[in-house]
Structure formats: C-alpha cells, structure tokens
Amino acid sequence: MGTVIAVSANKGGSLKTSISTNLAGVISKNGKKVCLIDLDNQGNVAITFGKNPDDLEYTIYDVLVSDVDPFAAIINVSDNLDIIAANDDMAYLEIDVLTKVKKYPKPLNLLSKSIEQLKEKYDYIIIDTPPQMGMIAANVFNCAEDIIIPYHPEVYSFRSMVKSMKAIKQFQKDNNKLKIKAVVPVKVKKTLTHEAFLDSGKALCEQNDVYFSNTIISESIKYTEAVGRYRKPITLATESSKVIDQYSEIYNTLTKELNYIG
Ligand SMILES: Nc1ncnc2c1ncn2[C@@H]1O[C@H](COP(=O)(O)OP(=O)(O)OP(=O)(O)O)[C@@H](O)[C@H]1O
Ligand SMILES: [Mg+2]
User: Fold this and answer.
1) Which of 120, 144, 216, 217 is disulfide-compatible with 6, CB 3.0–4.6 A?
2) Domain ranges, residue 129
3) 262 found inside a domain
4) Which residues contact 65 (CB under 8 A, 6 or more apart)?
C-alpha cells in the first residue's frame, strides 16, 4: 500500500507546491510510482507541468464530489509520475458539500474514500494543499501518514506552525498513522531574524518531538525565476545549468533525508 504524504501549511507562499512537485520529481526519477494530487484551487500543480487546469475533463473536485473514478482524472506527466489536478472548482468545495448533508454525510472523509484504490497502485501519493486550515485540511489529516510542514523562519509562519501542530494532534486521535514527518525551513536568508526564528522553530519541534530537517531551502530569486520555465518541476528538468543543478541537489538531499529514496 502506498504512503500518503501531504505538504501542509496555513501560510501562503511557503513552498508547499515547490516541495510537493519536486519531491514527486525526485521520487519518481528514482523508480517509485507516484501520484501527485492537487487540492488547491490555484491549480499550480497542473501549471507546473505546463497544463491549463481549466481545460481538463476531470479534476480532483469531480473525484471528491461526483464519485468520478480517480483513475479517470489521472494525467501522466512523466515516467512513474501521474497527477490529479485541481482548478477553481475547489474554491466551492465547502459550500457544495456542506449544503448537502444527505448526499455527503461524511464531508471530512471524502479524500480518504477517493484515494483508497490509488494506494494499491502507487508507492507514494503526494498531496499539495491550499494555505488554509478548513475542510480540505481536515480531509488531508484524516487520511495522510506523513505531513511535511514548510517553515519560513518569520513570525507569521511560526504562529502558523504552532497552530498546525495543534490541529494535527487533534486528528491523530482518529488517524493513528498521522505524523509530522518533518518541518522544513524554506526561503531562508542569512539574516539575524531568520537565524533567531530558525532557533525558535527548532526548539518548538524539540518540545513537540517533531523532526526538524537539516536540509534548508534557501531564498533565491534565481530559483523563483526558474520555477515555471521548464513546464515541469526543476528536479525533472532535462536541461542543465548551475541554478537547476543547485536547486535539484537541495530536493535530492531532502528526499534522502526523509527516507523516501535510498
Ligand atoms: N528557494 C526559493 N526562494 C525563493 N522563492 C522561491 C524558492 N522556490 C520557489 N520560490 C517561489 O516562491 C513562490 C511560492 O512558492 P510555492 O508556490 O511553492 O508556495 P506555496 O506554499 O505552494 O504557495 P500557495 O500558498 O500560494 O499555494 C513561487 O513564486 C515560487 O516560484
Ligand atoms: Mg501552492
């Protein structure tokens, strides 16, 4: 049965999509079968792979609310790597589901039901999430095993991490496989503020028995510029350049550190 990994943080722009797409890139390149699912109405997973999320016959929304077979929504994007995209429909998920209690008696278990069959076919199911702690996050925490929390070492992200940890503890009562696999520092700069918030983040993780990653994703405008240029995540780019090699190396190291590849 495949392992379900989700990248989650309440804070926008904290590299959730960059981490989920690049982890998917590294793991699939290493021969494991990966299904990458987008739950964010921004549709950035499809966009990362050069697809228009508004042109697709089925997205994760149809799988969650209309009982569309998850395999019908799958798009193969490279060797060992399939995606299920999201688009703007996901913005209406809560309203559509919560107003039809009879049709959706278990609104927080829609995802776990949908991915059951996928777990048999893939080694890893990687989930990219929106920057919210609402119904979508609850669906994720009800079926994921590993949560990766990106942490931008500043005050907003610190507060968001404290809240995520509390929320995850609540869900662990019902989902006994759920754990925080790691907190990963992102967009790190060599400033005193970042240094101080890295220390506070580490201390918070220690207190809560959570692994704080040694791999740090540093802030770089070069990485920002490279994202979206190749119609695939950087770790799957066939071109070679100093920026691609450096950024890929960070994600290779992170994926190894988290034991997803040998
Ligand atoms: N190492 C980096 N340093 C700085 N910026 C980066 C880096 N890697 C990626 N970026 C850029 O940061 C922005 C946010 O990244 P990303 O979309 O992965 O975050 P997110 O958490 O998924 O955002 P959202 O909450 O909106 O879904 C993007 O424009 C991306 O290109
Ligand atoms: Mg995103």
Assistant:
1) 144
2) 3-257
3) no
4) 93, 96, 97, 104, 110
